[in-house]
Protein: Methane oxygenase PmoA
Organism: Aerophobetes bacterium
Amino acid sequence: MKIHRILLTVKTEGRRCSLVPMSVEVDFGKFFKDLERKQFHPLAVKMIDKATGREVPCQFSSSSDEEPLKGMLSWILLNEAQRELEVRVFEKGSSSPCSSEGRIHDRGDGQLEIYLGGEHIANYVFNDAYEKPFLYPVIGPDGLCVLRRVPTFGDHPHHKGISLNLGDVSGQRGRPGVDFWGLGTIGDPTQGRVIHQRFTSLEQGPVFIKIEEENIWKQNDEIEGAGPGKALPERSRWKIKKEGKVLLNETRTITIWNVLPNRIIDIHTVMSPAVEEVILSADVEGRERRKENGPLLIRVADNMRGSVEGMIVNSEGARTEKNCWGRRARWVDYYGPVVPNGPVNGIAVMDHPDNLRHPPGWHVRDYGLFSPNIFYDKKPEWPDQGPVYLSRAKGEKLELRYRIYIHRGDEKDGEVEQKWQDWVNPPQVIIQGQ
């Protein structure tokens, strides 16, 4: 059986590492001239730690069907001692060196169930019963959901799980925008819904689960007899007075890394105008509160709230809502006992340096709301930031990356600062043929 080999050298520059998601672009065709496309299968890639001889689970994602030998090779770096990793590529027809530990189960009701290492990690809800797609539940390292129950009869019922939202999206200058933060009440054109269109890719493996989807951000149709303060007519009597506009097209990628017992969830969104110009959080008088809202929203479990047993801390060392709300920070960690007398878990949200207006202000509250915000500017403690204008003709888009890290203990126990550094400045990888 023919085996092709390359060597990866990982340079950590003397820093300590623990369970770091790693990805490197590899072109196997460059190293293995005699390996033909028809002889290759992504599952026939194996990684060995040269120091111990042990297998390291890895996952190869081809760039395209046209270039199957080129793509991203991913694995979890166990620690800084893993300095040399041998990658072995078996010819097609060989048995798969690794069995998949990640699994996506489509329930058939507009929900995906996500499993890693045999554990149920999360669900992704995308059905039209809700006003937006969102992650819920998300199970923490001690087997408990770290998010508030959905549905809820408590405050702010539109705070659902982990989702993407915007409080003000307009297609016309000087006009109030559409609210994609609230409940998206049917028949109310001042509100809108984020509507799932299709999954472009669902990838599962031993290293990560990846969900790629396309969404539209659509203003609600105006229905005769409906509106603020009015009951919606029976469905059989709906009559559309004016169709709502699609304002944004979105490509969303959610990657859940196998770093058990902790969880790392990466969210990458690319929003582009569906009309000639889109204005996000426009300066329109009387709309200040809309600018508090978005883009990423998390609602923590009730007992983790700052008003109960939880604590809020940010990357600058500030603690409590009073000192973190509105302040700029690279990350914010919200931790506490998930249930009364239960284990302490934390949810850290990290903002990427490439994001617009990094580091953002934070809309983080004792009642459990948790949101990095790049728009709001009407409070003294908030950064002075104006609207965002996106032109379709110029091909402009809003691209944002967030990492959500769920861990045991407080920010020190979870080494949140180190995890942020691992994300934005990962160890260097050198690739050599053998």
Remarks:
- Residues 95-99 have pLDDT under 50 and may be disordered.
- The first helix runs from residue 28 to 31.
